[in-house]
Amino acid sequence: MSKRFIYVMLILNMLTNIVAYVPMILIENRSNGSVLAMVVSLPIGIIIIYLFTKYMSKFPYMGLPEILGKYTPKWFRLFFLLIQGVLWYVAGLVTLVAFTNISKQYINPDMDELLIMLTFLIVIVFGSTLPSKKVLYATEIILLLNLPFIAFIIFKSYFNDDLMWDSVRIAVTHFQKIPSFESISSATFVYTGYTNLVIFNRLYKDVRVKYLWLLLY
User: Fold this and answer.
1) How far is CA 146 from CA 103, 189, 205, 207, in A?
2) Phi, psi of 72 (to 5 degrees)
């Protein structure tokens, strides 16, 4: 399996989080070290991804359930996977709610939120029934189709006349403030696309990637 899909997972997670709750949290903490938190999150993200991929590479063609099943007692495996399931459910629910709100606010304000959420859920359930390879291929296609639109939106946002550069300058003046744990964790959350390897590592013998620092930068 090509390693390009690892980059796809990382990039997709980054793009997802720049429109979810991460920017809102960083803006709320703009006078409490958010700018420095974004700088600090880069080396933290690189180190975590490096260690995680190095660890997963020691278990070729094995996902987290297979690793736990082979090396841990059954009770621990069930307990750990239950906790992981709850965490993944909460993370998915937060993302689902965020995209439902965004879709209603900017795409179709007249559409009922419950119907929008149900539409997303149908797509999610359908995707969860597909083999891992097909999920990765579909993810890559969706990313490639949407990248031009995302690039255009980002470009327009930076060159929009309504962008308040004075507010940006004010936030930069607080650069020296020690960031809070909330700011650092939110900024680092952008780089958590590597966590998908707990399942997709089943398709790889070695998931360590080169030039990771360039991608994250």
Assistant:
1) 15, 22, 30, 25
2) -130, 160
Q: What is the spatial distance between Cα 202 and Cα 204, in angstroms, rounded to a whole number?
A: 6
Q: Give the containing element (helix H, strand E) for 200.
A: helix 197-200
Type and span of the H or E element at 120:
helix 113-128
For residue 160, the number of C-alpha atoms closer than 13 Å in the C-beta half-sphere is 10
Place of tokens 């937060």: 94
Chain segment 169-203, per-residue pLDDT in tens: 777 787 888 888 888 888 888 888 888 888 888 88
User: Residues 136, 200: contact at Cβ < 8 Å?
Assistant: yes
Q: Is the pTM for the entire model greater than 0.85?
A: no
- Distance, CA of 27 to CA of 212 (rounded, Å): 27
pLDDT in tens, 144-158: 888 888 888 778 877
Backbone angles phi, psi at 30, to 5 degrees: -60, -30
CB of 104 closer than 8 Å to CB of 116: yes
Q: What are phi and psi of 57, to 5 degrees?
A: -70, -15
Sequence-distant (≥ 6) Cβ neighbours of residue 156 within 8 angstroms: none
The single-letter DSSP state of residue 81 is H
